[in-house]
Amino acid sequence: MKVATIDVESVLSQLTTNEKISLLSGSSFWHTTAIPRLGIPSLRMCDGPNGIRGVQHFNAVPASCLPCGTALGATWDQELVAAAGRLMGDEARVKGVHILLGPTVNIQRSPLGGRGFESYSEDPVLSGTLAAAQIRGTQSRSLAATIKHFVCNDLEHERKAVNVMVSERALREIYLLPFQIVLQESDPWALMTSYNKVNGIHASEDPKLLKQILYDEWGYRGMLMSNWFGTYSTSGAIKAGLDLEMPGPSTWRGFALRQALRCNKVTIDDVDARVRSVLRLVKHAVESGVPEMSLTEVGDVAAAMPVLRKLASSSIVLLKNEGRILPFQKDKKVAVIRPNVKIAVIHGGGSAIVTPSYAISPYEGIKRQVSSTLTYAKGADAHKQLPPMNGLLRTPSGKAGFLMKFYTEPPTSASRRLVDEVETDDTMVYLTDYRHELIADFLYYADLVAFFEPDVTGEYNFGLPVYGTGKLYVDGKMVVDNASRQTPGDSFWGAGTREEQGTIFLEAGRAYEIKVEFGTAPTQTKGGAWVYEHGRRWVAKAADQVVICVGLSEKWESEGFDRKDMDLPGFSDELTRRVASANLNTAVVIQSGTPVRMPWVDQVPAIIQAWYGGNEAGNAIADVLFGDVNPSGKLPLRFPVHLEDNPAFLKTIEYSCINCKRSQ
């Protein structure tokens, strides 16, 4: 039964107890439970903080990628951030999404927090004000925004066990304040709790945080949901005020909640209060007109482009411009130096990952601006893992990307039977949501086949991290073995291996077959870089102006782990020093979501902080470098010279194998 709206109290009175319980947990990873007989649809949620991924990790529908949270914070522009919210709302509608899981307003207490790039600022007022603007923009499209993660979730290490010890004053004046501002200025329809404990109690079952502060003091009447797998009790969470357990199927509701009702651990009034909150959100969703279980489509890319470019360019911060060497001149020789300057670094990792509808690298953006000679040198490796081969491969049929062939038997089986084929262009393959009717469980195999035609003759490095096992072949020769012996790493949210690498000599202009033999998780058995002296120095000396691109990526800043230090990876610092000594007209572009050390700061005349700029990162960087846009961004975070300069350094983390805790 389809309806135009619902009467919350009328529907509540018609629900059976089992139906009420079913509404208090998800039905799947991204959907809530439907009650068709009463016109209650299944609502679709999706990440995230900087783009509408949709409901697929594997072979995902392309999406607009907004600049990261700290980049939006650097704009200090409420109307511009509201435009970002409207853009996300528009794209969420075409992807059939009712509830957007963002924005994030956790305070960056340390520059090392893995998800620090997702939040706007360490200033609670700036953070809350901008988040409210973004939520107003999103909800103007009749979609729910979800403010998260409530509260004190600024650490990834042991994030489900860490106990945040915080004084009442710090809690109220710093960590709760952005949420309070958001609720006052935008009224988000949903709120997500955090994984961690606060003063000894998990946030998702803390009656002080949820019932006393949110409901009683602040009068919040939106829906409270857990973070994914962040519910830790049945009666405790229900009584504290947690409305929805995500994802489904339920662990703590369902049978466990029926038992709690039978033995009076919870009352039917407790359950009704939680169901009422869910139904209020269902009412909003029904009235939005977004169909239930609709197809996921690509948004209006052309309409998004100018907004994305404005967001990215407005976020860039001019940290230094000694001698006013910026802006550079478009008619003079320009050298661009960075190992991944031809690769678009557009977002951080974890929930922020999207498959972009397009992506502009710094090299491409600069190339579009200059009218004279543009040269390029790799400079130094700075990868935690080798950069992905997106856009460099061709399928056997000649399309961009590669072909995946799925089997239920390993490559050694003589009776191997092909069960599925998929063509995709994203070489970071997440199979968490891949399903096929002929594959009964999570044990299966896949061959990835593509052709690669190098444009330069020489030694090529190939890398392969896996959550499972894998071997990589080039024209039938095994180059990488990540199956025989494996080393645990932090790939795939910490569940996978480290990247194993291999080298092979390839000739320019020749097409090579690249093949990966992969087995899923049940098959699993579980340094530094080099400065390229040749080419780098003469490229820098021969140019009139030099751009050095350094920074981090989703491999260094991500949900699931924290950074170990503020250092740039590999030999980035040494590269910067050497290039600056070879050419005085050097500008350094830093792409990172949080602060990095700059030991060369006195040796270079110009520095800009470009963050993770989304689809238009490269164009935005070029706009600022060549004077088309004034760099008006302002730092939303302190950039300490050394990690020890951070005010919380001495008390940031206290680890214990028995009780992981952190004092504030």
Automatic annotation (TrEMBL):
Pathway annotation from the record: Glycan metabolism; cellulose degradation
Record's keyword terms, sorted: Carbohydrate metabolism, Cellulose degradation, Glycoprotein, Glycosidase, Hydrolase, Polysaccharide degradation
EC class: hydrolase
Entry superkingdom: Eukaryota
Catalytic activity: Hydrolysis of terminal, non-reducing beta-D-glucosyl residues with release of beta-D-glucose
Domain PA14 intervals: 397-552
EC number(s) stated in the UniProt entry for this protein: 3.2.1.21
UniProt-listed GO biological process terms: cellulose catabolic process
SMART domains per UniProt: PA14 (SM00758)
A Gene Ontology molecular function term of the record: beta-glucosidase activity
InterPro entries the UniProt entry points to: Cellulose_deg_GH3 (IPR050288), GH (IPR017853), Glyco_hydro_3_C (IPR002772), Glyco_hydro_3_C_sf (IPR036881), Glyco_hydro_3_N (IPR001764), Glyco_hydro_3_N_sf (IPR036962), PA14/GLEYA (IPR037524), PA14_dom (IPR011658)
Pfam families the UniProt entry points to: Glyco_hydro_3 (PF00933), Glyco_hydro_3_C (PF01915), PA14 (PF07691)
Similarity annotation: Belongs to the glycosyl hydrolase 3 family.
Cited PANTHER family: BETA-GLUCOSIDASE (PTHR42715), BETA-GLUCOSIDASE-RELATED (PTHR42715:SF27)
Annotated protein name in UniProt: Probable beta-glucosidase I
Origin species: Pleurostoma richardsiae
